[in-house]
Specification:
By secondary structure, this protein is an alpha/beta fold. The chain has five domains: 46 residues, Alpha-Beta Plaits; 195 residues, no CATH class; 91 residues, no CATH class; 119 residues, no CATH class; 146 residues, Rossmann fold (3-Layer(aba) Sandwich), CATH 3.40.50. 32% of the residues lie in helices and 17% in strands. An eight-stranded mixed beta sheet has the order 5-4-6-7-11-12-3-13, with helices on both faces. Strand 1 and strand 2 form a beta hairpin. The longest helix has 18 residues. The radius of gyration is 30 Å and the shape is elongated. The structure holds flavin-adenine dinucleotide and iron/sulfur cluster (3 copies). The site of one iron/sulfur cluster (SF4) has 12 residues, from helix 6.
């Protein structure tokens, strides 16, 4: 019968509990939050199976490594979501394609980490990315055995001790079993993890967590926590500044067994081991892109066959290089000297305080005065937007993702040219992320906006410099119009972006006061974007509509919403006699600027108008369902409307480049 005398002698693998036919063993958390077996002596028959299954009592000898590879997926998105080169997913996909089942670690609804299985490629997304918390094996060893006995291919992934536990639990080799372990620094306590989450977000509204965010590159990975799908606000910290990661990396919160790990040096019995190939750029420039490279150790022919089925960039490397760079494969890390004090105070002291006491952040070396001045002027990283992408809304869209980048990485974007309407966006001009270094109210007053910008164009956007910007490979020079569809950063910081893009207070107040009356009287307000001037000739006039056509659409909408009181908020740059829309309730802001009109659309219940970046922005910013009108039929149902989620997409997935009838209503 299993008995744990010293905590370091149990890695919590569940092999003993899984093998006991009498269900005499339950895994229970100790005061540190790690699971250990507890035997119900009344149910135990003293058969000894649990001891035989224990990978700590029966440790295997280290194995020869057949080959070592540096490898990565060709799929950039996949690599971004994975901790290193995305190799786990490629291996797992190969198994699923052959009808197999994959076991791995994922977050459950409480953001605890558990082992589960999937037979779908989509299900692999949950396993992607390292979770630095011990995952609970639960019933998965027994489930894996069932699949193996049915003859299905099984890929079991996990920490080396989880693989060793599985192997001892199974007690025989299965041809259809493949095992992959991740090289393991150690696993932190689930209790510390829950405490961190409770302190960070007491209301528990978490949308997404990544321990290995690559926004600032693979080598400077960060901890990211997105608070809620609705609020869309996000915490992104360098690992060294995150309290939980600090407790993990400084070895304060690891399981005792991790300090004398029974499975180092290839003793887990896995077919393949995967790790971060740190330092790879020194040996192989093909992998020097700082987006993540995996190291793969091949231990068996079965493992090599599986690896050969993946479509990855992989190159063989000498074992010596791996040994030099990935020392945790061979050696256990030492416990923090004050680990026990840390756990003793855990119940009563906030985590931040404990980490500050035992693993304080190292103070960066003091910079010289000159360096500090230079750093104030030129931050660590920055982007310069050098193009002039058309009118106001084109610019708002173009800057969007680069500003998202600046907010997420706490850096700055410099915009060389501005739109004349920038004066209506106080927050955009005054914030820590976006700067208009050449914008000067005095010079604009003195020379006039157009003349001053012409002068700047001559200096900063002349033929010579434009050629330089366009040809440079440096990502610091941003051709923003080409970035309009990018959505790498902004979706995570929409709260902040909405604040930056809010128009000035007086515009907000004026628009609200006009709409207030209609809101009070329960009107359903439909924004109508009427754009005719330049659309008469643009693209052969295909987006140009006569006022009659606008009116027909509006009348049809009264039918669609016949159970509501409908009012139309007209947004246009021409003077339109309201008498023309006789019979329809019209609202419009007096002396409106384009920004009054734009903001008014963001406050409506629905928006219609011809295809344009203007109404597209209003729908996106205000989360207002939009439908583009086109020649021919009018809108007949509310389903024609959907909110814009990025430059080219509606929330229901319709693409704007290939607009179907759905949101154009031809
Ligand atoms: C706790 C832990 C410590 C690690 N320590 C090191 C280290 O010191 N040095 C090093 O080079 N690499 C370490 N790794 C491995 C590394 O971070 C990557 O997981 C590995 O390189 C695979 O990356 P990938 O891009 O191929 O796939 P990814 O998609 O990043 O990997 C996903 C795989 O990790 C498994 N996994 C994720 N979290 C857990 C968990 N909590 N328990 C068990 N399995 C889990 C998934 O089941 C899946 O198999 C560690 C991983 C974990 C989970
Ligand atoms: S000795 Fe046998 S019956 Fe007793 S706990 Fe272990 S496996 Fe179960
Ligand atoms: S290491 Fe695994 S098998 Fe051994 S006692 Fe702990 S949980 Fe049981
Ligand atoms: S360090 Fe060893 S004992 Fe700890 S989780 Fe990793 S494999 Fe298991």
């Amino acid at each position: 019968m299993i008995e744990i005398k010293d905590k370091k002698d149990c890695c919590g693998c569940h092999a003993c509990a899984s093998i006991c036919a009498h269900h005499a063993i339950t895994m229970q958390a100790d005061a540190e939050g790690f699971l250990y077996p507890t035997v119900n002596k009344d149910a135990c028959t003293n058969c000894g199976l649990c001891e035989q299954a224990c990978p700590v009592i029966h440790q295997s000898s280290p194995r020869q490594t057949l080959k070592v590879y540096a490898a990565r997926s060709y799929d950039e998105d996949l690599r971004r979501q994975s901790s290193s080169g995305g190799i786990f997913t490629l291996l797992a996909e190969a198994v699923i394609r052959e009808g197999g089942v994959v076991f791995g670690a994922k977050f459950d609804e409480e953001w605890s980490v558990i082992h589960v299985w999937t037979e779908n490629i989509d299900g692999l997304a949950d396993f992607r990315g390292s979770k630095y918390v011990q995952s609970t094996i639960g019933d998965t060893y027994r489930e894996a055995k069932k699949f193996l006995q049915q003859g299905r291919k099984v890929l079991f992934t996990g920490t080396p001790c989880q693989i060793a536990g599985l192997k001892r639990f199974l007690r025989k080799d299965y041809d259809n079993l493949l095992t992959v372990d991740v090289v393991c620094h150690g696993v932190p306590s689930p209790f510390v993890w829950q405490k961190y989450l409770d302190e960070m977000c007491p209301n528990g509204k978490i949308a997404d967590i990544s321990f290995r965010d690559k926004t600032n590159g693979w080598s400077k990975y960060g901890f990211r926590l997105r608070f809620s799908a609705i609020k869309e606000s996000c915490l992104l910290q360098p690992s060294s500044e995150n309290v939980f990661m600090n407790s993990f990396l400084s070895r304060l919160s690891l399981r005792p067994s991790c300090h004398s790990c029974p499975c180092k040096g290839g003793r887990s019995g896995s077919d393949l081991s995967i790790a971060d190939f740190w330092g790879i750029e020194k040996y192989n420039s093909k992998f020097a892109d700082n987006k993540g490279t995996s190291a793969i150790l091949v231990h068996t022919n079965k493992g090599k066959e599986l690896l050969d089925k993946t479509d990855a960039l992989k190159e063989e490397h000498p074992l010596e290089q791996f040994k030099r760079e990935v020392t945790t494969y061979y050696r256990s890390v030492e416990a923090h000297p004050r680990r026990s004090e840390f756990f003793e105070r855990l119940d009563t002291t906030p985590l931040r305080e404990l980490v500050d006491d035992y693993a304080p952040k190292k103070k960066p070396a003091r910079k010289s005065l000159l360096k500090r001045i230079v750093h104030r002027i030129i931050p660590n990283d920055f982007r310069i937007i050098w193009d002039k992408p058309g009118q106001t809304c084109n610019r708002l869209w173009s800057y969007l993702d680069t500003i998202g980048w600046a907010i997420r990485t706490q850096n700055k974007v410099y915009v060389l040219f501005w739109d004349k309407d920038i004066k209506y966006f106080d927050h955009l001009r005054n914030n820590p992320y976006i700067k208009f270094p050449l914008y000067s109210k005095t010079l604009i007053k003195w020379l006039g906006d157009a003349r001053y910008q012409k002068f700047l164009t001559w200096i900063f956007a002349n033929r010579f410099l434009n050629r330089f910007y366009a040809r440079t490979t440096s990502e610091k020079f941003v051709y923003s119009w080409q970035q309009r569809a990018s959505k790498e950063y902004f979706p995570y910081v929409m709260d902040e972006i909405r604040k930056l893009y809010a128009p000035n207070q007086n515009i907000v107040a004026e628009v609200k006061s006009v709409m207030e009356r209609y809101r009070r009287e329960d009107y359903f307000i439909i924004g109508v974007h009427i754009r005719r001037g330049d659309y008469k000739t643009f693209e052969g006039g295909k987006y140009y509509f006569e006022l009659d056509e606008y009116k027909q659409h509006m009348q049809a909408l009264c039918e669609v919403y016949k159970d509501k009181k409908v009012c139309f908020a007209i947004s246009t740059n021409e003077k339109i006699d309201h008498g023309f829309f006789e019979g329809l309730e019209i609202c419009q802001t007096a002396n409106a600027t384009a920004i009054h009109d734009l903001y008014m659309l963001t406050q409506c219940d629905r928006i219609i108008g011809p295809l344009s970046t203007f109404s597209r922005w209003a729908s996106f910013y205000g989360k207002v369902p939009l439908c583009f009108i086109s020649k021919g039929n009018v809108i007949e149902t509310d389903e024609a409307f959907s909110v814009i989620t990025d430059f080219y997409h509606f929330a229901d997935g319709t693409e704007i480049v290939n607009l179907t009838d759905k949101h154009t209503h031809a």
